[in-house]
Amino acid sequence: DTAVSQTPKYLVTQMGNDKSIKCEQNLGHDTMYWYKQDSKKFLKIMFSYNNKELIINETVPNRFSPKSPDKAHLNLHINSLELGDSAVYFCASSQDGGRGRKAFFGQGTRLTVV
Amino acid sequence: TQLLEQSPQFLSIQEGENLTVYCNSSSVFSSLQWYRQEPGEGPVLLVTVVTGGEVKKLKRLTFQFGDARKDSSLHITAAQPGDTGLYLCAGVNNAGNMLTFGGGTRLMVKP
Description:
The complex is a heterodimer. Chain A is mainly β. Chain A has strands at residues 4-7, 10-13, 19-25, 31-37, 43-49, 54-56, 64-67, 75-78, 87-94, 104-105, 109-113. Chain B has strands at 5-7, 10-14, 19-24, 31-37, 44-49, 55-58, 61-65, 71-76, 85-92, 99-101, 105-110. In chain B, β6 (55-58) and β7 form a beta hairpin. Chains A and B meet through β4, β5, β9 and β10 of A and β4, β5, β9 and β10 of B.
């Protein structure tokens, strides 16, 4: 069973569209994350979210919004897509507590905006 | 914002050689993690180092956390083609709710 699953794996869409990427974790973790990996493979945190607080990286445009229907899901909604949004987006989860927290990553969603 | 710098960015070596990858920051992290990422996959955790000066070994991989908990290194002995991949270090902040990744080191081991 996949611990952290993302859908879709590939997403090609036109500029200006609104799209969502779904993420589900079956690990019972308290915290979920969204990361953006650019063409140079740099992984940048976008959001960190648990049932207590949402931490937003201040550099993330407000066109991006996380939506969590429940503890096991953290979806990423993107409005008015731009060419620069093209990247691979990774969802991850970890269990709260302790300095040794271990993050499990999904396989990524490759978003291409044309 | 806590930043992590990895070096080198790219490394191409022959099978059997040794190598070291460095991860440096001006910030203190509560712990530091190393991940490996294969093409088309998400990062997979290799190790977490928590205590300043800590050394952990994973077969031919040796991980060290700096005494001041600001830097870390990954040393691979007798590299093999199967070690090829993207190696990422990530620091955990004091609140324990954020992972900050370094820029990654792309390693290629040629047979």
